[in-house]
């Protein structure tokens, strides 16, 4: 691998990311979301035709009120004061309340309607069936989701044909990990096991597309340290995600460099084999420009500066929505993360408001492919529901192999 690009692209090449509907809604979510997440289940489980004994109603309502007040306080304390225990409590309550809210809405409407149609019991009987169904499903999903979040991801393998890839590069093995989100829960052992799994894949190129951690490099160093053991025959490359810019992005860039990874900050490397070349480029996250950090910003023109336009391009960009610029710039394959595949259903549908892809391989423009990983770790709530984590092995294929005589 050889470095051939300019590290200081012109600012005129920057295109600010489009403001999505989700971004506008985010202004109001901190005020509205906690109330909805706790008030709706409280009403469905305790008050909507239930007629529970008064002590049950009072105690249950008090617990929901405690969650409503305690969750945002714990999350704020955990984030602002970097208190791990508070963050764990707040994040766990957030995940639990989301699952409880979802199934309270679904079963509170659909199941109750179905029971009414088939004439099951009286109104109170139907209400209590809904209550126990919601509690049972929530408990099962949270237990399963916790196990899914904490396990070492399964390896997802796929062949990706790039029309411009030379025959000499056919079979190049690219491993993608992303969104490890080292955080309040100490996952140093998990990190080591992920790296052990990566090392069984015989990668030529290993990529990390950002969101390494929640917190500073100093606080999460022990969890990130196993990344130094990752093996690749050609290179280990990294780009920043939006969460790096919530703490200290430059600190993470420096630490990854220290661990032996190549930060592709708006530049590229060349992967060459048997006379053929693949441009491996990377850009900062699209939020970098607004971070105020000098020299940080997503500059595709800078990343490709000096690259032969006839060579295929593999681009690392944390967020899938960068693919619009990638397609316009002639990129052949973009690797991204960020979405977590929705992490906890049905958050999937909200993610799709902001991003062009949720997970997997998709086509954009005339030749650009986008692979979006569901992520290797988890953010915040320690649950994954209908959104499994992954380590991805992409084997690049060329259509130009010589035919057998």
**Proportion of residues in β-strands:** 15-25%
The SS-based structural class is alpha/beta
CATH homologous superfamily of the largest domain, by name?
Metallo-dependent phosphatases
Global mean pLDDT: 91
Give the SSE order as H and E letters: EHHHHHEEHEHEHEEEHEHEHEEE
Strand order of the largest sheet: 1-7-8-9-10-12-11
CATH class of the largest domain: Alpha Beta
Head-to-tail CA distance between termini: 34 Å
Low-confidence parts, pLDDT < 50 over ≥5 residues? 4-18
The major β-sheet equals: 7 strands, mixed
Count of all domains = 2
Transmembrane segments: 28-46, 52-74, 86-109, 129-147
GO molecular function: metal ion binding; UDP-2,3-diacylglucosamine hydrolase activity
Domain Calcineurin-like phosphoesterase: 172-341
GO cellular component, one term: membrane
Write out key terms for the chains shown.
405 residues; alpha/beta; Purple Acid Phosphatase, chain A, domain 2; 2 domains; six-stranded mixed sheet; 13 strands; 40% helix; elongated
Explain this structure to me?
The chain has 405 residues and is α/β, with parallel strands linked by helices. The chain has two domains: 23-149, no CATH class; 153-397, Purple Acid Phosphatase, chain A, domain 2 (4-Layer Sandwich). Helices cover 40% and strands 16% of the residues. It has helices at residues 21-25, 29-47, 54-80, 84-117, 123-150, 188-199, 217-224, 249-258, 300-303, 323-328, 347-354, and strands at residues 2-3, 154-161, 172-177, 205-208, 235-238, 262-263, 267-273, 276-282, 313-316, 333-336, 360-364, 368-372, 390-397. The protein has a seven-stranded mixed sheet. It has a six-stranded mixed sheet with strand order 2-13-3-4-5-6, covered by helices on one side. The model is unreliable at 4-18 (pLDDT under 50).
């Amino acid at each position: 691998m050889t470095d051939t690009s300019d590290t200081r692209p012109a600012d005129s090449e920057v295109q600010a990311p489009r403001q999505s509907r989700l971004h506008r809604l985010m202004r109001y979510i901190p005020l509205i979301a906690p109330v909805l997440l706790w008030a709706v289940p409280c009403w469905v489980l305790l008050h909507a035709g239930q007629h529970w004994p008064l002590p049950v109603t009072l105690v249950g309502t008090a617990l929901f009120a405690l969650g409503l007040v305690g969750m945002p306080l714990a999350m704020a304390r955990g984030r602002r004061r970097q208190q791990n225990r508070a963050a764990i409590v707040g994040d766990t309550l957030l995940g639990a309340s989301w699952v409880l809210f979802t199934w309270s809405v679904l079963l509170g409407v659909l199941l109750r309607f179905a029971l009414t149609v088939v004439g099951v019991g009286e109104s109170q009987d139907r209400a209590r069936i809904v209550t126990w169904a919601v509690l049972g499903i929530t408990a099962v999903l949270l237990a399963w989701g916790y196990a899914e979040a904490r396990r070492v991801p399964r390896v997802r393998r796929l062949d990706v044909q790039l029309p411009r890839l030379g025959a000499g590069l056919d079979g190049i093995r690219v491993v993608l990990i992303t969104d490890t989100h080292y955080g309040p829960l100490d996952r140093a052992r998990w990190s080591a096991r992920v790296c052990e799994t990566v090392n069984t894949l015989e990668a030529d190129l290993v990529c990390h597309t950002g969101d390494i951690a929640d917190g500073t490099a100093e606080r999460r160093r022990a969890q990130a340290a196993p990344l130094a053991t990752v093996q690749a025959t050609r290179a280990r490359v990294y780009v920043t995600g939006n969460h790096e810019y919530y703490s200290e992005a430059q600190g993470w860039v420096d630490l990854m460099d220290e661990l032996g990874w190549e930060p592709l900050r708006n530049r590229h490397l060349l992967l060459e084999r048997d006379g053929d070349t693949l441009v491996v480029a990377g850009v900062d996250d699209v939020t970098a420009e607004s971070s105020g950090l000098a020299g940080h910003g997503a500059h595709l023109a800078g990343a490709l500066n000096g690259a032969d336009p006839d060579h295929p391009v593999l681009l690392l960009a944390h967020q899938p929505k960068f693919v619009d610029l990638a397609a316009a710039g002639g990129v052949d394959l973009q690797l991204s993360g960020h979405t977590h595949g929705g992490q906890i259903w049905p958050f999937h549908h909200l993610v799709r408001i902001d991003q062009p892809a949720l997970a997997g391989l998709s086509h954009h423009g005339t030749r650009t492919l986008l692979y979006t990983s569901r992520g290797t770790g988890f953010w915040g709530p320690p649950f994954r529901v209908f959104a499994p984590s992954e380590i991805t092995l992409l084997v690049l294929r060329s259509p130009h192999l010589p035919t057998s005589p």
